[in-house]
């Protein structure tokens, strides 16, 4: 279904490496991998990535069993482990067959999983590459497919039988940028503006509506394609998982994305689905094609350090919200409330006075550690990057009297970098784009707010669209402990206030908060507390060293700053016109 024209020629050129993945034992979550290395040097090094999908070192070699090599005649070849994830194959002049088993049981968009229900394969977590041949064409054969299972992927397909399917890609990088969903999923597709959109859903049928999902995707895709005035793909695949358990997240790829949302969350807050879909889809430009130089070439064996995630992630969210407004899925009021929440989130984190947006990007590799998530230690490049995107948009409008905006910056970067297959030089490239588009100097903006930690100029720039920020102290419920929560996981307690009800009831740092008032906790505790009141008694289910236990706590009270965005007392016609254009992400006429 996804056979692009440009791939036909590639299919005919010889593959450097042939991968064969046998779905061998669903019960044990085992895949059996055979890799055909072509003739080459006598000594060939192969590696399994240590990270993929998430910017976190996860050492996938931990799942590899029984790695060995032999020649075409079945004679053993020498294999030497060079480090935890690299092997050297000897006597490989005539090529070699490498074999290993790999355990795959991590669900979600960042995982690789094979069980009796389905398989979702991020191939970078499963397949080794040859150091000398990463840029060569590859083929992939999936074997031993369970009866009745279908396959969805953005990879180009050669052939398929009931039990196997073969795919090809023009490099290892391209291969592992297209996850594969296998199972008895539901699917639909539609054509819009000449492109094919395929939607695949792995969920209980009653937990979602395919027709509304399809209509939602049509609106978001139309909004983003028209905003960019570009559609650099013939086909795009959305893979959704809606499990009935705490989960969440999305992962972008060049021609597909994988999104997971808890079915309960999906029912209670449909805006989550819209936001994550708009965000992952816009990544097909921002990060996949408009790509920071620091992320290339991908170093699968070590961290790729980048200062640009504030732009590649945070400003992707800025644009996703523009797209939702253009698509009629987010009202002005909802947008301003969400903007106020983002401002409050940043301002309440003490680390915003010393960790810059660029440093937060560099430190993405620390996000797996709970302590790193504490407000005193870090800010989020999603959060500050989103705000920087909003403010950069307003500043571009201010210095050009409304004639240029963030849309022009993205179209400029798309034309000057993506379309020429060039990577942009991180923050300096964004600044250069802003300056090229507006003709103004953006050094102060970038020095103060992107690489620096000056307080962001909310009031000054919101005033250009007739708005102001109001701050006031309110009394909010205090639960007596601080917690941090990684995407898709439950909150973990990092500090407990001495003398609080939480301390008295034995909550300790390291405890995981499973349930609040009987419901699984799928958000930050602070978000859940917003609907409760000081003095109220809450029931918690907590797991930790003391086992899993049920506790009752009386909420205390504390003062906290609230943030609200409101109209200026008098609004000029220029401010009103600027606001109208800003809300739909366009320059003024
Ligand atoms: Zn993202």
Describe the structure.
Strand 25 (512-516) and strand 26 (519-520) form a beta hairpin. The chain starts with 6 loop residues before the first helix and ends in a 6-residue tail after the last helix. The radius of gyration is 25 Å and the shape is globular. The chain has four domains: 2-184, Immunoglobulin-like; 203-284, no CATH class; 298-466 and 577-589, Neutral Protease, domain 2, CATH 1.10.390; 471-562, Pdz3 Domain (Roll), CATH 2.30.42.10. By secondary structure, the chain is of the alpha+beta class. 28% of the residues lie in helices and 29% in strands. It is built from 16 helices and 29 strands. The strands form seven sheets. Strands 5-4-8-2-1-12-15-14 form an eight-stranded mixed beta sheet. It has a five-stranded mixed beta sheet with strand order 17-18-19-21-20. A four-stranded antiparallel beta sheet has the order 6-7-3-11, with no helix packed on it. Bound molecules: zinc ion. Zinc ion binds next to helix 6.
Mean pLDDT: 94
List of distinct ligands in this structure: zinc ion
- Give the strand content: 25-35%
The gross shape turns out to be globular
Largest sheet: 8 strands, mixed
Computed structural class: alpha+beta
């Amino acid at each position: 279904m996804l056979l692009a024209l440009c791939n036909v020629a590639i299919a005919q050129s010889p593959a450097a490496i042939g991968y064969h993945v046998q779905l061998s034992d669903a019960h044990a979550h085992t895949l059996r991998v055979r890799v055909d290395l072509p003739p080459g040097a006598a000594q060939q090094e192969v590696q399994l990535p240590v990270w993929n999908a998430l910017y976190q070192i996860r050492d996938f070699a931990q799942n590899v069993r029984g790695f060995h090599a032999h020649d075409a005649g079945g004679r053993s070849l020498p294999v030497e482990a060079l480090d935890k994830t690299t092997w050297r194959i000897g006597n490989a002049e005539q090529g070699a067959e490498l074999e290993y088993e790999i355990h795959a049981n991590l669900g979600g968009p960042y995982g690789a999983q094979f069980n009796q229900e389905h398989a979702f394969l991020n191939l970078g977590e499963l397949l080794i590459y040859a150091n000398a041949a990463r840029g060569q064409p590859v083929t992939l054969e999936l074997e031993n497919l369970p009866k009745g299972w279908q396959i969805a992927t953005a990879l180009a397909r050669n052939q398929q039988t009931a039990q196997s399917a073969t795919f090809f890609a023009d490099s290892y990088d391209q291969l592992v940028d297209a996850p594969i969903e296998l199972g008895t999923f539901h699917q639909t597709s539609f054509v819009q503006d000449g492109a094919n959109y395929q939607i695949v859903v792995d969920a209980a049928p009653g937990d979602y509506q395919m027709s509304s999902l399809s209509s939602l995707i049509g609106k978001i895709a139309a909004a983003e394609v028209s905003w960019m005035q570009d559609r650099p793909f013939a086909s795009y695949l959305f893979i959704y998982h809606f499990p009935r358990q705490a989960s969440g997240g999305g992962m972008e790829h060049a021609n597909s994305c994988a999104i997971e949302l808890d079915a309960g969350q999906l029912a209670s807050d449909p805006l989550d689905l819209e936001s994550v879909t708009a965000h992952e889809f816009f990544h097909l430009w921002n990060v996949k094609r408009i790509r920071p130089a620091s992320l290339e070439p991908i170093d699968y064996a070590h961290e790729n350090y980048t200062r640009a995630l504030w732009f590649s992630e945070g400003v992707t969210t800025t644009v996703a919200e523009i797209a939702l407004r253009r698509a009629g899925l987010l009202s002005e009021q909802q947008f301003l409330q969400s903007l106020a929440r983002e401002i409050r989130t940043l301002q309440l984190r003490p680390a915003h006075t010393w960790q810059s947006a660029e440093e937060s990007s560099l430190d993405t590799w620390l996000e797996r550690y709970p302590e790193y998530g504490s407000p005193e230690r870090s800010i989020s490049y999603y959060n500050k990057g989103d705000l920087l995107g909003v403010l950069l948009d307003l500043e571009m409008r201010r210095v050009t009297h409304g004639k240029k905006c963030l849309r022009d910056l993205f179209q400029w970067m798309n034309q000057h970098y993506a379309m020429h297959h060039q990577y942009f030089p991180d923050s300096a490239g964004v600044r250069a784009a802003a300056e090229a588009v507006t003709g103004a100097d953006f050094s102060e903006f970038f020095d103060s707010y992107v690489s620096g930690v000056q307080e962001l100029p909310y009031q000054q720039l919101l005033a250009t669209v007739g708005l102001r920020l109001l701050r006031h102290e309110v009394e909010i419920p205090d639960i007596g402990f601080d917690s941090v929560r990684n995407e898709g996981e439950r909150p973990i307690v990092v500090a407990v206030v001495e003398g609080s009800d939480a301390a008295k009831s034995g909550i300790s740092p390291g405890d995981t908060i499973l349930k609040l008032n009987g419901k699984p906790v799928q958000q930050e505790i602070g978000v859940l507390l917003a609907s409760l009141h000081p003095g109220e008694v809450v029931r918690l289910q907590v797991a930790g060293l003391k086992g899993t236990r049920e506790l009752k706590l009386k909420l205390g009270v504390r003062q906290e700053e609230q943030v609200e965005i409101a109209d200026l007392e008098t609004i000029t016609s220029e401010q009103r016109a600027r606001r109208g254009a800003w809300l739909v992400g366009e320059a003024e006429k």
